[in-house]
Design a protein that fits this description.
The complex is a heterodimer of chains A (262) and B (231). In chain A, a hairpin with a 2-residue loop joins strand 1 and strand 2. Chain A starts with a helix and ends with a helix. Chain A is mainly alpha-helical. Chain A has a two-stranded antiparallel ribbon. Chain B has a single domain, classed as Arp2/3 complex 21 kDa subunit ARPC3 (Orthogonal Bundle), CATH 1.10.1760.20. Chain B has a two-stranded antiparallel ribbon with strand order 1-2. In chain B, helix 1 packs across helix 5, helix 2 packs across helix 4 and helix 5 runs antiparallel to helix 6. Classes of the chains: A mainly alpha (262), B mainly alpha (231). At the A-B interface, helix 3, helix 5, helix 6, helix 8 and helix 9 of A face helix 1, helix 2, strand 1, helix 4 and helix 8 of B.
């Protein structure tokens, strides 16, 4: 569970820097349009451009390298796996072959380039998403989603879930240690019923807390309406400049992404 | 089980969003309708959704490796049993969105595809497995076990279908590709994980039933005829 405590944190999104100060609607527009360009890209240049620029942006706001790496580790493994599988299975033209323990692995040129293309899209897309998540708090994200007319039920439910995930993670971590110290996890035979008990307690606590939370919200005037507290200010000159910048850069990226380099 | 960002081509991104959207819409309608009658319903769904999300982060030991490696469950089978299939689709969708944004698991363009496999297939298969097992008057543990196991199997089946469909454009056989991907899932840690998740869900149901049966009754998981339920 420690892994989640390190990764699943909005501590960087709460810092004060030029990316956290940027309007959330603008960031959402940027991410959606750049993800679309990344998806349609026919070569590796645009996805790798997104990957490297995201890295530079994250360094400028002093996000520790290890935190970025932790978020990117799984997608990087996926990218390598895709590269390997495609190199071995796609295409006709043999590039090179190696023999491992008597088993011949044949790498094909077309598959390698296809794998490189897909892998770069994975890295480009994920780096855009983590740049957004490292610089945006959940309350601002929910306010942005509400502005884009995403149904209130989704926004409220997301706010609720996100708020209580941290609380439940803390509770589970405590119970987890308690179970472990009482030899509840010594073998998988013991571990499975222990996990069942742990999750059962979690559900019961969630149910009880829901009642208490509703009562507390009702006392504060909640009658089933909106629960968001963040209000977004109208765009000023800076936001309009960023927006015009996006409008200008998009056709260049679409053109570059559409080029067939091989 | 999550298809990562950038894997699906634009055509399939659009298809899976179009397939998932009506289910999410019906989920919203269900919550809105229930919220009008019971105003505390939204906090309840949020809390249970958060609890199921945390459950899906549990490191479950891979038995084939004698616990040297861990994997994690889906949780949709349990949420479908507790909240109903349509609300579970919505909860799974939000959980996938949070995972994509804050954990870099899955992705935003692949959200539709992941909702289809984990949300729709996982929730509905788990829910119907539980209901059919209840009809057959199986003990509560086995009802939960079947819901957890079958929802996991269908989630992986959905992911295999989505990835298998990608080979059609390249002249490959969809069935062969999907079967191969599903086979790889099952032969690695995931096959055993389905059974382990089923067992955990079974234990959860029995635990709640023994400690607080009112919760299961209030959520409509069991009917009032508690005498017929064995654990």
């Amino acid at each position: 569970m420690d892994f989640l405590h390190h990764t699943f944190s909005d501590v960087y999104a709460r810092q004060n820097n030029w990316l956290t100060r940027m309007d959330v609607r603008l960031k959402m527009l940027y991410v959606i349009s750049l993800l679309s360009i990344n998806l349609w890209a026919k070569n590796v240049s645009v996805p790798l451009f997104f990957f490297s620029v995201s890295f530079i942006f994250l360094f400028t706001i002093k996000i520790p390298f290890m935190s970025i790496l932790r978020s990117l580790s799984l997608p990087m493994v996926f990218s390598l796996l895709i590269l390997l599988v495609k190199s071995l299975h796609e295409g006709e033209q043999v590039w090179f072959s190696v023999s491992i323990l008597g088993y011949k692995l044949v790498f094909r040129e077309e598959g390698f380039f296809n794998g490189l293309h897909t892998g770069s899209k994975v890295l480009g897309g994920i780096s855009l998403v983590i740049t957004f998540s490292f610089t945006t708090t959940i309350s601002r994200l929910c306010a942005g989603l509400a502005w884009f007319r995403v149904p209130n039920t989704i926004v409220e439910l997301m706010a609720f879930m996100y708020r209580y995930i941290f609380l439940f993670l803390d509770e589970v971590a405590t119970m987890w240690i308690a179970q472990k110290s009482r030899l509840g996890h010594t073998s998988w035979r013991k571990m499975i019923p222990s996990l069942g008990t742990l999750c059962g307690v979690l559900i019961i606590r969630a149910f009880d807390r829901a009642e208490r939370t509703y009562e507390a919200m009702h006392v504060r005037g909640y009658e089933g309406g909106r629960i968001l507290t963040v209000t977004l200010s109208p765009w000023r000159r800076k936001e309009y400049i960023f927006f015009i910048g996006m409008v200008l850069i998009t056709p260049i990226l679409i053109y570059t992404g559409g080029l067939c380099l091989w | 089980m999550h298809i990562t960002e950038g894997i699906l081509p634009p055509k399939w991104v659009a298809v899976w969003f179009a397939v998932s959207a009506p289910f999410v819409g019906i989920g919203i309608y269900h919550i809105k309708r229930k919220k009008r009658a019971v105003p505390s319903y939204l906090p309840l769904v949020g809390m249970l959704g958060a609890a199921v999300f945390v459950f899906s982060c549990f490191p479950i030991p891979v038995i084939a490796l004698n616990g040297m490696a861990t994997s994690h469950p889906c949780g949709t089978g349990m949420s479908a049993v507790l909240l109903g299939p349509f609300v579970s689709v919505l909860v799974a969708g939000i959980a996938l969105l949070i995972q994509a944004l804050f954990l870099a698991h899955g992705g935003l363009t692949t959200l539709g595809g992941n909702i289809f496999s984990m949300g729709i297939l996982g929730s509905f298969s788990g829910y119907f497995a539980f209901k059919i097992a209840q009809r057959c008057k199986l003990p509560l543990f086995w009802c939960g076990f079947l819901a957890g196991t079958i929802s996991d199997l269908f989630t992986y089946l959905g992911t295999s279908i989505e990835l298998g469909l990608l080979v059609i454009n390249k002249g490959g056989s969809f069935f062969k590709a999907a079967a191969e991907i599903f086979g790889v899932f099952m032969m690695t840690s995931q096959g055993v994980l389905c059974i382990v998740e089923g067992a955990v869900v079974g234990f959860v149901m029995v635990f709640i039933y023994k400690r607080r049966p009112g919760i299961l009754f209030n959520l409509g998981v069991i009917r009032d005829d508690t005498k017929s339920i064995g654990t």
